[in-house]
Amino acid sequence: MSLVEAPAAAPARRGAATARLLRSELRLVFGRLRNLVLLAGLAAVPLLIGTVLLVTQDTPVAGQGPPFLDRVTGNGLFLVLAALVSCLPFLLPLCVAIVAGDAVAGEAATGTLRYLLVVPVSRTRLLLVKAVAVLAFAGAAVAAIAVTGLIAGAAFFGVGDVTLLSGDTVPLADGLLRALGVVAYVALSLTGLVAVGLFFSTLTEVPVAAMASTVVVAIVSGVLDALPQLSAVHPWLLTHHWLDLGEFLRLQVDVSVLLAGLAVQAAWVAIFGTLAWSRFTTADVSS
Amino acid sequence: MDTTRTLSPRARWTIPAVVAGAVAAAFVLPGALGATADDDLPALTADQLVDRVANADPVPVSGTVVYTARLGLPDVTVPELQGAGPLDLLGGSSTVRVWSDGEDSSRAALLGPVSEYSVVRDGPEAWTYSSADDEAVHYVVDPADQERYDELAEKAAAPPVDGDLPTPDEAADLLLAYARTTTDIDTTGPVEVAGRAAYQLEMSPRTDGTLVDRVRVAVDAETFVPLRTQVWGVGDTEVPAVEVGFTDVSFEAPDPSVFDFSAPAGADVREVVVPLPEPGAMEQPPAADLGGGEGFAVRGTGWETVVELTDVDVDAILGAAAEGRLPEGGTGSSGAEALLDELAPTEDGEMPGLPELDTRALYEQLTTEVDGGRLLTSALLSVLVTDDGRVLAGAVPPATLEELAG
């Protein structure tokens, strides 16, 4: 596939080769029709929610549903938050798992992995390039929801001063900043899942297996998180801190809460990242 | 490529293991290290400690409080669906963020997943706000009482030290002497709470007739602000039945804007006028008027005290609460009124996101049918509601209540 661009024989500087590889990898991820459809599907979620709310806003069912949904008709900015919260349990992990699980296993399945390894870039760097490309997709997925959410929200309901969870009202600029924080936090919350997906992707040559296992990890984590008997292990679960994004909408944002959530993601990245590295750099690649 | 060639495959697989170990250590160690107590505190006797606490100047406090209840009550809430609300405090762990200026302004926010329940008090007015159902309740002092409130506030600001009233010192001594008739009071070794060195006071009832095994209060060694309270029931002397304490505390004055609350646009607002209690009514047990009856009796003393209300129309209360309000009439204490309102499960008649959590269903879920009434049992408190309209409550075993009820 993209190997043609990497002159295998040239003793090119390693940095330049890696950069080229990254560019081609990003082109690959964002050029693939399947991935674009995923992004479009995610972007459609806030449109769908916004349309439904617009139609039903004067009916008795208005104001029911997941967090933030009842606020949307009053302030379109909340459409961003409502859409993110709705996508967070399943849709976002699913899309990220599809791309992460495909990263290495997909190349192995189509027989292009061995050619990729001919590129004068170490396997470590190759894995890093793959990871960066998947992370970029995860960021794009969150951004797709947020941007369409903001546009649709503003168009349907208008935006204004933001009422926080504490009942205090902050100016729109402050609210936008907080929403940006939520978007960043959600994107970073997906890094652990990316690492898990990448690891599974190095284990198999069947992309679907890697994708499915990754989704299963996210879902099992969510199920375990709902069992009160396991409260001792809850803080370590991949998905436990995802909804801490609400912290951005409190009177005083407690950074330590957010850092605790990100630290758990960092721990998952460290463990599954090194596992993926061990596997990828020791595996015999025959296809 | 060079670096990846230098490691054998086996060595390569040890790296994730090492990383996993390091990660586990990074998460576990700070907690383990933080548990060590500071032994450098000058020793204080229980008497000295109580004196210090009684005489401490009020200081602003803010921080995060974690409240954990293991009362053995059935789980009646689904915070993920309902949002944070006062009912969460019946069981499990809740996180509350608090701010206080040390005087008459304070704020507490009960945190739920993507929801919050706030109680803000600023002098004579108070607000509660629930993010889940976007409803604010505004409590104000009855205008007729406003003058008297100001007077009281002034008096509280500059309390008369001399005269017939005991000084805080003497008051503390009196209190301690009184408490000692029923309770063993002692200090334990210093502890660390929320990263601060703290003295700890331990109170154990002398009687066997109560559900309370012991109470421990940890007091900051510098400001003498209570940082943590733990109550053990006799059923489980290892794990506290109720534990509430700071996990993070600061004694700097919070930004005054924290106490400046007004209902957000679009929220449902309910106004409640709180009558100020008549002079001398402060000592009245707050629940006396709850059922509209006169009957109120205290049976037993000390830890075995049982409060008995007669002529309580349980059906009326359940019905009234289901309609969205407590029975009319003050409870005799503005604090208790506010508290009751906060704790009344269906104060607003609807639980967000769920079919209404019916007060009666809740009552029936929490209590069990016994001979001649319904009984609520928990690790620390028993309440017996008899069919003839009496309510007995106390930190005593249920059998004691049934015996008293006859």
Automatic annotation (TrEMBL), chain A:
It comes from Isoptericola halotolerans. The chain crosses the membrane at residues 36-56, 76-105, 126-159, 179-203, 215-237, 257-277. Coiled coil: none annotated. The keyword Transmembrane applies. Keywords: Membrane, Transmembrane, Transmembrane helix. It comes from the Bacteria. Pfam families: ABC2_membrane_4 (PF12730). This is ABC-2 type transport system permease protein. The keyword Membrane applies.
UniProtKB/TrEMBL annotation, chain B:
The keyword Lipoprotein applies. InterPro entries: LolA/LolB/LppX, Sporulation_related. It comes from the Bacteria. Keywords: Lipoprotein. This is Outer membrane lipoprotein-sorting protein.
